[in-house]
Amino acid sequence: MKVAIVYASITGNTKELAEVLFKILKMQPVESTIYKIEEFPLSHLCQFDAVAIGTYTWGNGELPTEMEGLYQAFELLGREKLVTAVFGTGDSFYPRYCGAVDLFRDMLYVNTNLAAILKVELTPQVQDVVRCQRLVESMLNRVNNVNKRMKEGMETVR
Ligand SMILES: Cc1cc2nc3c(=O)[nH]c(=O)nc-3n(C[C@H](O)[C@H](O)[C@H](O)COP(=O)(O)O)c2cc1C
Asked: What are the residue boundaries of the Flavodoxin-like domain, all occurrences included (predicted)?
């Protein structure tokens, strides 16, 4: 099983969250790779069984510009069975808390097999590790079940 984490981060919060997830993934019997969005070749999307996307939120609940290409690539991919998850950090001071996670969530739910979403307030805390473990579990269980079951719901990790 091949799993990718692809993330965007300016001030390091989402990077930190992506690295927590990567550490957890590395304890699993899967081939996992972590990419900054700038280093991820969009043409490689089809090589993975599961992709977890990490994004901060910009403007008024907007996607970071550097994530727009990835967002469009999922829309064009046409792989409804591709297992995905989306996670991100944001600041609840803003009216659209983690709005970019919501934008990805809505698109991935339609175009892929979305397993889980996770929102973290600014810097990940110790209690977020358990939430990260649940996201990884949801994603890997979904890949294992993908051939057995049809599209399922998704989990909001609290
Ligand atoms: C100009 C600006 C706009 C932002 N807009 C939002 C927003 O609409 N919603 C939100 O949840 N966070 C917003 N944030 C907060 C960032 O998403 C948050 O600090 C995030 O953790 C940054 O991630 P990073 O450290 O990975 O770059 C904004 C931050 C800045 C500087």
From this structure: 3-144
